[in-house]
Design brief:
Length: about 350
Amino acid sequence: MAFFTKRYHPPGTAPGMLHEPSIKAMASRPASVRRVRYNRTAVNVTTAEDAIPPITESSDSKAMTWMHVQGRPSHQLLTQLGETYDLHPLALEDIHNTGQRPKVEEFDGQVCATLSLPRFEDGRVEIYQANFFLSADSVLSFCEGPVDPFEPVLTRLQETAGRFRSRGTDYLLYALVDTVIDQGFPVLEAFGLELEELEEKILGGSARETLPHIHEVKRELILLRRMLWPQREVINALVREDQELILDDTRLFLRDCYDHTIQVMDLLETYRDMSTSMLDIYLLSVSNKMNEIMRVLTVIATTFIPLTFVAGVYGMNFGSNSTSPWAMPELNWYYGYPLAWLLMAAIAVGMLIYFWRKRWL
C-alpha cells in the first residue's frame, strides 16, 4: 500500500473540473455499470460497460433505482451520470480524484458519502474509494477495484421480498455502507494471522528475517488507521436527526453499523499495539542474543587470563642462572613441562566450575 494514493488536479485548476483520463487509466478495463430497478414484487437488473444501461421494464413511479459503477469511470460516463442524476460538480470531482478522506456532504437535496473500502490482496492491503449518493428514489454507488463488493447486497435484494424491497432507498444505502464497514473484519483477521506467524518466527530465533516484514505490517496498519478512523464520523453524521432522507427506522440499523466501526477500530488499535510491541520483542531478542554472545566471550577471555599469566611467567628465561637462589628451578625439572600444563588445566577447570556455580554459564 503506497503512502500517498490520492489523485489530484494540478494546482490552480478550477473546482469541479474533470480532467481527461490519462493514458494509463484509458488502458485499464472499462467501468462496469449496473442499474437495478426494484419494488415490492420485482427486481430488474441491466448492465453495460462505461455507459448508463437503458431502462427495459415498464415505468413504475414507485420503483426505486440503484445505479452502481464498478471500476474507474471515464470522463464521459461521469458527465453523463452528473447530468442524469443532477450530481454536483464537486461531488463528481471527488469521484474522479480518488483517495479522498471519508466524509458526508449534502448537495441540492442529496446526501453524498465517501468511504474507504479495504481489501487484503496478494498479501497486501489495498484501499479503494466508495462514493454514495442518496436521493428520495435512487441510490448511486461508485467503487474502485476489479471486484464488486456489493454482489451480496444484490443477491439479498433479489432473494428477499420482504423488508429489503419494502423499505426506501435509505435502507439500501445502509446495506451498502454496512458492507463497506464490514470489509474491515476479514482484513484485520488476515493481519491477526500474520502477526501470530511473525511472533512465532521471532520467538523461534529467525528475528533478522522478520524485521522488514514487521515494519511493513506496522506501516500498513498506520495507513489503514488513517483511512478508517474518519468513517466513524461518517456514520455518526448519517445517524443525525437533521438528515431528512434517512428515516428513524433506518437510523437504528445505522447505529449498529456505527458499533461495527468501533469494533473495527478497536481491533485495528490492538493489532497496531501488537506490531509495536513485536518490534520491541525483536529488539529485546537481538539484545539478549548479543548478551549471550558477550557472556560466552567474556568467560573464554577470563578463563585464559590466568593461563596467559602462567605461560608468561614460565616464558621468562631466568632458569639458566645457577648461582642465584631465586632462579626458576621448575624449568630444569624432568616433569616441568607436563606439570605446567596440568596446572593450567586445573586453573581452567576450576574457573569453569566457579562460573557454573555462580550461574554465569
